[in-house]
Design brief:
Radius of gyration: 25 Å
Strand content: 15-25%
Number of strands: 16
Order of helices and strands: HEEHHEHHEHHEEEEHEEHEEEEEE
Helix content: 25-40%
Low-confidence stretches: none
Length: 397
């Protein structure tokens, strides 16, 4: 009888102990009973407006840290005391309100890894204004994004899951046509024709995104990353497939609206040939040396061979903001956007705008006729500078 009493006593103490633990966990670490939050998607597919235009805002090198505690670099002494990442946030909001883009492309170094202990939190803050706007957007990585708490694969996966993002970690196996592709953030997006036109269900402007890497070692020497052969093979394959689809559309509609749908490319680190533009006519300013890889992987040769890419938009070298032509393809810097990235005191941060315009047919909008670009400065006038035509469809003979 005494033994049963002892066992009961221990059982009671054990149950009391378990209850105490459960109570502690419940009070100190309450369960989140909120419903699961799903990603918000933009209206897809990407499409030209009723007025026959499609506008892209390029944001290069935000270098976002943690927010108000992350100070600005290379600003005037009069600006420094109250300057932080919030200046970058305000500039992005202002550009969205002013230019009213249809799409926003972030071309790398979106966050500055060494300045944040939580990469995910920095991404949420950096991309906050575009998510609030509901505008579709996409991003590639630079050489600093992964220098915090997430790998490049994790970063692209996280970015692809953010509200209104149409970014992809990499092509699907169905689209890849190969077993492996280097990097993370290689994908393409199609922009469809204007509503009500015979091209409303067809992609007439293609946007290619490529991962240019971060840092690598070649023969014992550190250098910047580069676009690899597997990526170029993928680009060539996708471009060929899109051109075949384009020809099928022309056959079905019995029109010569456009012989070849133009394409634009976005990546972070410039290719070595961009250095040649120092000796050529450019639109904008060549203010610093081109920081690129020591390896020339043949990007320019591939772009020339596929024939559809008319312009490439890059970042990395913050004070360069020029466009220059290499073998018929324009290479354009976005110019440093973020206030935590390096720059020059007194040189306003800036953004690039790209505008594609359709050709007006007898009754409806046709294919792309013209692609223009300009820059906006974060000065008191939000100055618009260096407007130029990058590509124009030659009239048929």
């Amino acid at each position: 009888m005494e033994s049963r009493a002892v066992k009961w006593k221990y059982s009671f103490l054990y149950l009391t102990f378990i209850y105490a633990i459960l109570y502690f966990l419940h009070t100190k670490f309450p369960l989140d009973n909120r419903p699961i939050r799903l990603k918000k998607w933009p209206d897809l597919p990407l499409r030209f407006r009723h007025d026959g235009t499609f506008k892209i805002l390029q944001v290069a090198d935000m270098h976002f840290g943690t927010g108000i505690l992350t100070r600005c670099r290379d600003v005037l002494p009069t600006q420094f005391d109250h300057c932080s990442d919030l200046n970058t946030t305000l500039f992005l909001k202002t550009m969205i309100q002013l230019e009213k883009p249809d799409f926003i492309s972030f071309t790398g170094d979106n966050i500055f890894g060494p300045s944040t202990a939580d990469a995910a939190e920095s991404l949420l803050r950096a991309f906050g204004p575009v998510m609030e706007s509901g505008i579709p957007w996409a991003a590639v990585l630079g050489n600093h994004d992964q220098e915090s708490t997430m790998t490049r694969e994790e970063l692209m996966s996280f970015i692809s899951l953010m509200d209104y993002s149409v970014s992809e970690t990499n092509p699907t196996s169905k689209d890849l046509m190969m077993s492996y592709i280097d990097g993370f953030g290689n994908y393409n997006l199609g922009v469809y024709g204007a509503p009500g036109s015979h091209l409303a269900n067809s992609s007439i402007l293609n946007l290619f995104f490529l991962d240019s890497g971060d840092r690598e070692t070649v023969q014992g020497i550190r250098t910047y990353g580069w676009i690899k052969e597997s990526q170029l093979n993928w680009l060539h394959s996708v471009s060929r497939g899109l051109q075949e689809q384009n020809q099928e559309v022309n056959d079905i509609t019995e029109t010569q609206a456009i012989a070849l749908s133009p394409a634009l490319a976005f990546f972070h680190i410039p290719i070595p040939e961009v250095r040649q533009l120092y000796y050529r006519n450019i639109v904008g300013q060549f203010r610093e040396g081109v920081a690129c890889s020591s390896v020339n992987s043949g990007v320019l040769k591939t772009l020339v061979s596929i024939k559809d890419v008319k312009a490439v938009f890059i970042g990395h070298d913050h004070t360069n903001d020029f466009c220059g032509n290499l073998e018929g393809i324009w290479f354009c810097y976005g110019g440093g956007f973020g206030y935590h990235g390096y720059g020059r005191a007194g040189l306003p941060r800036r953004a690039r705008v790209i505008l594609a315009e359709l050709r007006k047919g007898d009754k409806a909008w046709m294919g792309v006729e013209r692609i223009k670009t300009w820059k906006r400065l974060d000065d008191e006038n939000l100055s618009k500078i260096d407007e130029q035509v990058l590509w124009e469809l030659l009239p048929s003979r």
